[in-house]
Amino acid sequence: MLRKMNQFDRRKRRVRRELAGNSSGRPRLSVHRSSKHIYAQVIDDVHGHTVAAASSLEKDLKGKLKTGADKAAAAAVGKLLAERATKAGVKVVVFDRGGFKYHGRIKALADGAREGGLSF
Q1: How many folded domains does the chain comprise?
Q2: Can you give the CATH number for the domain in which 57 is found?
Q3: Is residue 89 within 8 Å of residue 14, measured between CB atoms?
Q4: How far is CA 93 from CA 28, 35, 67, 90, in A?
Q5: Of 35, 36, 70, 88, which is most buried by a Cβ count within 10 Å?
Q6: Is residue 12 one of the residues assigned to a domain?
Q7: Do residues 85 and 41 touch, judged by C-beta distance below 8 A?
Q8: What is the DSSP letter of 37?
Q9: pLDDT digit string, tens, across residues 62-88
Q10: What is the value of pTM for the model shown?
């Protein structure tokens, strides 16, 4: 049976379809947001491996943050991810927000990654 797709799934498919056509071999910065934490990783789809990853669950961030579910945490994760990605030799990425709207924590993470040196 076919299941009815909700708005999140439709948005996710639309974003991924656009990224596949416009990525031209650049790594993908993928973001996941839960109610308590935020996760991000830079993925090289050509070789199929993760280049760099960061989340609000890491020990060095967890002690500094009030909570893992606010804009400050998202910005800190973005900066940390950008630092790790540039160390691995990645400067230009494609931003994959998944099915999440570009607003709030997702936008804060993107701004933090740009501040850290990534361009997209």
Answers
A1: 1
A2: 3.30.420.100
A3: no
A4: 5, 26, 27, 7
A5: 70
A6: no
A7: no
A8: -
A9: 888 999 999 999 999 999 999 999 999
A10: 0.89
